[in-house]
Design brief:
Helix content is about 35%, strand content about 20%. It has about 300 residues and is α/β, with parallel strands linked by helices. Helix 4 runs parallel beside helix 9 and helix 6 packs across helix 7.
């Protein structure tokens, strides 16, 4: 029976009540956000996988799939093959910082902003499968119509364009969760996100918009000012609190980070559930590699 016919078969009074409830939900600010981030379930993923490469402790595979607008999302999967880890693996989606790419999570140097690689390494060593994607306008997804350097969005104050880039990246994260079910060794019922900077903001919104995300680690999340003559924006973190419910979330912030002020982070955390922890690290926007322990411990306790 089709959905349309099932709906028509309802008693008239029940149909009216249901329609009224749906309209009321859609008219709320959070309901409007949910509507924006809804995806068509019938959209094909067009998953393309590359040959798996063996590492000293596991395997890595690059792959791609289609976004909601038919753009290609480039991604990488890594997991350990250690026999101590059996069954389907919980999945952590890794989201990089601005001007970076999925490669940030595999950097072998000790240079600036290389710390996410330590997070990826420790997650894999603790039995998680990790999937990193290139966010919109980054990495392999920089198109001819994009800026050569994504930092141009912030440097020139193109905040509205930056907000749209972030919202589209949230839709890409939702598509990534759809892809998880295509891998037989991955557990689509246990999914978390870990994001840094641009990826932190994307991961935060994704956790609010997708009930399949069970936990999140949000590192160095920026707070952009509202547009001129406006008091908020459609990707303001405060507008998404309703969707986070009781999800275990860790907010990691740097004491000298210029992308936010402590009172703003404190205000956000105070409005969130008791499952939200806030940790301050003595650093700027480039965090120490030791923060990887915070990520692993949080996700191990969440699962």
């Amino acid at each position: 029976m089709s959905t349309f016919r099932a709906f028509k078969a309802l008693p008239i009074a029940t149909s009216i009540l249901l329609f009224t409830a749906l309209c009321a939900r859609a008219e709320s600010s959070f309901g409007m956000l949910e509507s924006y981030y809804t995806l068509d379930a019938q959209l094909p993923l067009s998953l393309k996988t590359a040959e798996e490469l063996a590492t000293e402790t596991g395997m890595v595979a690059d792959f791609s799939f289609d976004a909601f607008d038919n753009a290609e999302i480039t991604a990488r999967l890594e997991m350990s093959t250690d026999p101590q880890f059996t069954g389907k693996r919980p999945v952590v989606i890794l989201l990089h910082g601005i001007t970076q790419s999925l490669e940030q999570w595999w950097r072998e140097d000790q240079g600036p902003y290389s710390f996410p690689a330590a997070h990826r390494k420790q997650l894999v060593e603790n039995g998680f499968a990790v999937i990193a994607i290139d966010l919109r306008n980054h990495g392999a997804r920089i198109e001819p119509h994009d800026f050569p350097n994504p930092y141009t969005y912030l440097e020139n104050g193109y905040y509205e364009a930056a907000r749209k880039m972030i919202s589209q990246s949230v839709l890409d994260v939702r598509r990534t969760i759809d892809v998880v079910a295509e891998f037989e060794n991955l557990d689509s019922s246990r999914v978390a996100v870990v994001g840094f900077s641009l990826g932190a903001w994307t991961g935060y919104l994704s956790a609010a918009m997708d009930e399949r995300i069970d936990a999140a680690v949000i590192i160095g999340m920026p707070f952009l000012p509202a547009a001129k003559d406006q008091t908020t924006s459609f990707i303001s973190q405060f507008e998404y609190i309703e969707g986070l419910e009781e999800k275990p979330m860790l907010l990691v912030a740097g004491t000298e980070d210029h992308f936010y002020k402590r009172e703003v982070v404190d205000a956000l955390q105070s409005k969130m559930s008791t499952n939200t922890d806030e940790t301050w690290v003595d650093s700027g926007h480039d965090f120490p590699r030791s923060t990887a322990t915070l990520t692993v411990n949080h996700l191990l306790s969440a699962f």
